[in-house]
Amino acid sequence: MTEDTNTKGIRLADKERTKCEVWTRVMGYHRPISSFNIGKKGEVAERIYFKEEKCPGSYERPCR
To answer: Taking the complete model, does pTM exceed 0.70, yes or no?
Structure first.
């Protein structure tokens, strides 16, 4: 059993936690990652995610 403390100081055991299911868009529709085969799970693990930043000073035009 693992216990963890969140930012509010509440301790939860693993059995008290809610399972989080991650979905992704593949081939035009959304599917849970838990239903993928081993090859597709490996492909998802290798994905590189990016964060798009706002252009300083203006939100109306994109950064160049």
So the answer is: no
